[in-house]
Amino acid sequence: MNRLQQLFQHKKKDLLSIYFTAGYPNLNDTLKIAQALEQNGADFLEIGFPYSDPVADGPVIQQSSKTALDNGMTLALLFEQLEDLRKQVTVPVLLMGYVNVVLQYGVENFCKKCLEVGVDGCIIPDLPMYEYEELYQPVFKKYGISNIFLVTPQTTEEHIRKIDELSNAFIYLVSSSSTTGNSLELSNQATQYFQHISALKLKNPQIIGFGISDKNTYDTANTYASGAIIGSAFVKNIDANHIEESVKNFMKKIR
Amino acid sequence: MNYFVDERGYYGEFGGAYIPEMLYPNVEELRRNYLHIINEPSFQEEFKQLLKDYVGRPSPLYLAKRLSKKYGANIFLKREDLNHTGAHKINNTIGQILLAEKLGKKRIIAETGAGQHGVATATVCALRGLECVVYMGEIDIKRQAPNVARMKMLGAKVMAATSGSKTLKDATNEAMRDWINNPVDTHYIIGSVVGPHPYPDMVAQFQSIISFETKKQLKEHTGNELPDYVLACVGGGSNAMGMFYHFIDDESVKLIAIEAAGKGVDSGFSAATTTLGREGVLHGSKSILMQTNDGQVVEPHSISAGLDYPGIGPQHAHLFKSGRGQYVAITDDEAMNAGLLLTQYEGIIPAIESAHALAQLEKMQLNPSDTVVVCLSGRGDKDMDTYMKYFDLQD
């Protein structure tokens, strides 16, 4: 059982996860931000490895990805930076990025490295479920890496059931049909969608992401799911010159 | 060997649908319905009628006599440049707008590089009275002012893609993001044989009218429907796939795809994807693309905006890897000279994209009995600025 699965076993509510882009704002800020987030109460972390063409992301993460690439960030370099991860960070860590970067690194290499440095799972939005199931699931299992799938308001129940079967940590509920960084509208439609998912009694817990930007949206998400993920709003608030302080101030506003 | 799409959406090892879950319902809706809709007799009837009366098909297959004499073979030009809006692009947009209507979509989005696909999309939206939004790189908007004006006059909204390198690949990213944000009422008309399955197959089918006509016309001209060579330029590869389609299973026909070498394949300013690229995933399908070791997509270069794309369609990747097609590269200079040559030998100013295919004739060992068909994918009106600067025709 990896750290992520352990976490979900003993904590069922009010989980807070934060996303940030590796190599942003400065190349070597990755571990510094991870440490500051743990110290300020994040339950688990998502570290993004940048890609030149992030189609699921809005302007904030597009920009942080571009800056990180300009700074010289690569997946290989991120794994180097993470060699000391488990000396400094105890909470579960996920890597998030696009499939082409993983394919070029090699899927087996990627999983092996994740295990070595102490990464517990990953989110690869453009890796299709059937590809994962046919080709990659055995490799992920071999190294004990959890693959996280996304579900949206348009996802059919049949598809959700299948995702639930293939998941072994949590399901990522995308709050509305949008790219990252839009604000969550608490419409009847969104509420109905969250209620619909709860009613399905899935075996995996659900965490809501996309559009969670402040205490208000975080609290709302928590009434319908086990927790929430904040990405763009956090990335926007990082102050390159005062990393620790800006992380602390942001986290204080959420919890 | 099977060179066409299988039931999983793959061409050999290439293809598939590498898309985020947010796009899955849209793409799945299309995948479930496209074959059924396209094969309906009423769809085919309307499609063919529009191609005939509105686009002006069949496009002529023209025996270029002076060019034939120069190269010592029988050279035919498939005149896609004579289509309405000036290129092959309209074959696909007519097909997709009819499909979008059958799916009940009210809003159309598209990406465009030089603006040709954007104009072809804006045109069919005006024809059918549908809302149209075209994404175009900020840099391309500045470079292609006449096409931006045409799209606006046709009633389309032109949105600047300001992310990444601000060119075609980023316009495609922006169109995909729009589709994520508008999943129910919107259809995305992709302009080439790229994107997640079923796009490469669907666009290839709409463009296959090119080779379908060519076979019949060649038979009338020569008594034989099969040529020795078929030549077409490749950016994403839609005119080439249309030109190859009905010849793919006739293995005696040599298929030659011409990529843009830009300033030379080793210059760092090139779009020669099969020479410089590796297998990877871009814009929803596994294919061959130009990228760094880390998997970041590399910005291509070509003097012709239509070939300035860092990938190729997955079916092309399969034709390349299986050896069924020969993929070669032509430099900016070679293409420009071939464009001038065609103008002065035949009185036809070709699009610079098409001039890449013509430039390949210079490099072939042809026999007098050889029959060669070159796809003249577009006309050169849009390129007059580039021609004028290159050949110093200002005065």
From TrEMBL, chain A:
<comment type="function">
    <text>The alpha subunit is responsible for the aldol cleavage of indoleglycerol phosphate to indole and glyceraldehyde 3-phosphate.</text>
</comment>
<keyword id="KW-0028">Amino-acid biosynthesis</keyword>
<comment type="similarity">
    <text>Belongs to the TrpA family.</text>
</comment>
<keyword id="KW-0456">Lyase</keyword>
<protein>
    <recommendedName>
        <fullName>Tryptophan synthase alpha chain</fullName>
        <ecNumber>4.2.1.20</ecNumber>
    </recommendedName>
</protein>
<dbReference type="InterPro" id="IPR018204">
    <property type="entry name" value="Trp_synthase_alpha_AS"/>
</dbReference>
<feature type="active site" description="Proton acceptor">
    <location>
        <position position="57"/>
    </location>
</feature>
<dbReference type="InterPro" id="IPR013785">
    <property type="entry name" value="Aldolase_TIM"/>
</dbReference>
<comment type="subunit">
    <text>Tetramer of two alpha and two beta chains.</text>
</comment>
<feature type="active site" description="Proton acceptor">
    <location>
        <position position="46"/>
    </location>
</feature>
<dbReference type="Pfam" id="PF00290">
    <property type="entry name" value="Trp_syntA"/>
</dbReference>
<dbReference type="InterPro" id="IPR011060">
    <property type="entry name" value="RibuloseP-bd_barrel"/>
</dbReference>
<keyword id="KW-0822">Tryptophan biosynthesis</keyword>
<dbReference type="GO" id="GO:0004834">
    <property type="term" value="F:tryptophan synthase activity"/>
</dbReference>
<dbReference type="InterPro" id="IPR002028">
    <property type="entry name" value="Trp_synthase_suA"/>
</dbReference>
<keyword id="KW-0057">Aromatic amino acid biosynthesis</keyword>
<comment type="pathway">
    <text>Amino-acid biosynthesis; L-tryptophan biosynthesis; L-tryptophan from chorismate: step 5/5.</text>
</comment>
From TrEMBL, chain B:
<keyword id="KW-0028">Amino-acid biosynthesis</keyword>
<keyword id="KW-0456">Lyase</keyword>
<comment type="pathway">
    <text>Amino-acid biosynthesis; L-tryptophan biosynthesis; L-tryptophan from chorismate: step 5/5.</text>
</comment>
<dbReference type="InterPro" id="IPR006654">
    <property type="entry name" value="Trp_synth_beta"/>
</dbReference>
<keyword id="KW-0822">Tryptophan biosynthesis</keyword>
<dbReference type="GO" id="GO:0004834">
    <property type="term" value="F:tryptophan synthase activity"/>
</dbReference>
<dbReference type="Pfam" id="PF00291">
    <property type="entry name" value="PALP"/>
</dbReference>
<protein>
    <recommendedName>
        <fullName>Tryptophan synthase beta chain</fullName>
        <ecNumber>4.2.1.20</ecNumber>
    </recommendedName>
</protein>
<keyword id="KW-0663">Pyridoxal phosphate</keyword>
<feature type="modified residue" description="N6-(pyridoxal phosphate)lysine">
    <location>
        <position position="89"/>
    </location>
</feature>
<comment type="function">
    <text>The beta subunit is responsible for the synthesis of L-tryptophan from indole and L-serine.</text>
</comment>
<dbReference type="InterPro" id="IPR036052">
    <property type="entry name" value="TrpB-like_PALP_sf"/>
</dbReference>
<dbReference type="InterPro" id="IPR006653">
    <property type="entry name" value="Trp_synth_b_CS"/>
</dbReference>
<dbReference type="InterPro" id="IPR001926">
    <property type="entry name" value="TrpB-like_PALP"/>
</dbReference>
<comment type="subunit">
    <text>Tetramer of two alpha and two beta chains.</text>
</comment>
<keyword id="KW-0057">Aromatic amino acid biosynthesis</keyword>
<dbReference type="InterPro" id="IPR023026">
    <property type="entry name" value="Trp_synth_beta/beta-like"/>
</dbReference>
<feature type="domain" description="Tryptophan synthase beta chain-like PALP">
    <location>
        <begin position="56"/>
        <end position="378"/>
    </location>
</feature>
<comment type="similarity">
    <text>Belongs to the TrpB family.</text>
</comment>
